[in-house]
């Protein structure tokens, strides 16, 4: 058992002792066997059980990522392993990659309808159902990963997140963060916003709305379809995540220029969603265990990407010959202005999006001044010659 899981298990164990009385008696939707009568006429219940002999909950977790894809795909697998270990097998989760049980972009619907109890993806993939979800995934020129976590857990963001998903019977958690992403892969240089005109680019969420304002055509594709789409000319350019995942997909084989910064996704939050009825079927101590495990998942992913992106970028540039380019300042300024327009337009179309926007903007206005005199100034000082 890892130190991380051991510490969490000890905490959950203490919670379990205090809450054990909540787990017995009622039919909470757990996996059970058939009722059988003994020879003396009394009735006993055979139920599936974990290592502890307690009731078990056999859940399905569907994802928008290829099975075991580095980072994005392995995080749900680790969550399932951790929950199995932390609960002595009471929560037993089977993870399905994109397309294994449901299509990649149908994860939200699958969890809402109860086809699966859990899902892992990104909120902007289901913006058609929940426009406000885009504020809970990423906003162009918006919050960084650390700022986002501040908003979620200490700035009222999580409450709004759950309010937005409640009509669909879905409970969301921040389920990992990739940090600042890269700007994308292109087969021509981008020297101005005009170079984006007529460009068909895979770019989801509000970033896609901004590309449209710049004269391009946004295309929403799941990760597993990107390589073929770019290779065959279905799209002209793409963004995906960052060096760690982009190298895994081999995007350097079919695109010449790799641009930064990822203005459109400055701190991309993934989400772990749970069917509300399934979650409510859990006794209190197991609900708490899920919460703790997902919190760990959220923190661990950012740490992994911080480490892996550095290694992958070096390989892409030094060994694969990728041409690394920075978007021009003038282009970034214009894209920032377009982003502000796109965000306001989204807020005007949907009441829940408007509430999320006001909260997001208020927190951003408060946190940016300190970020500028702390992390930003420190990084500038560290780089000074």
From TrEMBL:
A GO cellular component term found in this entry reads: tripartite ATP-independent periplasmic transporter complex
Any one of the GO BP annotations: transmembrane transport
What domain of life? Answer: Bacteria
Q: Where does substrate bind?
A: 181, 202, 239, 265
Q: Which residues does the annotation say bind Na(+)?
A: 240
Give the residue ranges for region: Disordered. Answer: 27-53
Key words, A-Z: Metal-binding, Signal
Where are the compositionally biased (Polar residues) regions? Answer: 29-47
Q: Which GO terms describe its molecular function?
A: metal ion binding
Q: Which residues form the signal peptide?
A: 1-25
PANTHER family attached here?
EXTRACYTOPLASMIC SOLUTE RECEPTOR PROTEIN, PTHR33376
Q: Can you name this protein?
A: ABC transporter substrate-binding protein
Species name: Tamilnaduibacter salinus
